[in-house]
Amino acid sequence: MAFKFIAEKEIAKVDEKKIEQYESNTQVILDTTMGSIVIELYQDKAPISVANFLDYLDSGFYNGTIFHRVIPNFMIQGGGFTEDMDEKKTGSPIKNEAGNGLPNLRGTIAMARTRIVDSATSQFFINTIDNFFLNHQDNSPDGYGYCVFGKVIEGMEVVDAIQNLPTGTYGYFEDVPLESVLIKTACRNNQSN
Fold it and tell me: Is the pLDDT of residue 91 over 60?
């Protein structure tokens, strides 16, 4: 897959007022075709990533997307493709907050990105094991890591069921579940806070 160059000036500038309007520890529900996953977001540790994720969520962007990349004993990834494997148009990439001290432990949600440090847009992944090699090590491109911005608090059994689905190749995409796992709706949990 080709990567486009992302200039520093192209990185999305998240409105500070938007960051302040989101309460810490907002909960969201991903209602999938395999069950519900409830995620608690860590706005205090990853304000840019949480504001970005909630912008996509509140706009309905994630509704009708799939978990398009599933690797057992690693992670499940979603938030960018429709059931037909059409990539959805996203906004500008955000600043990588991987240096926030949150490790990529089992059940945490993190921003997916290309090899370019500040390239995350809408896609995310849920760690199915402790993935310490994804943590921030240093400020080099290879050591920067992947930003954790929340954790699954209910529905890890759903995540585990998704990670164990048989996968195959779809076009040039590998590790695609043979059975689509659709995010029917993604919304804030009105019972949180």
Answer: yes
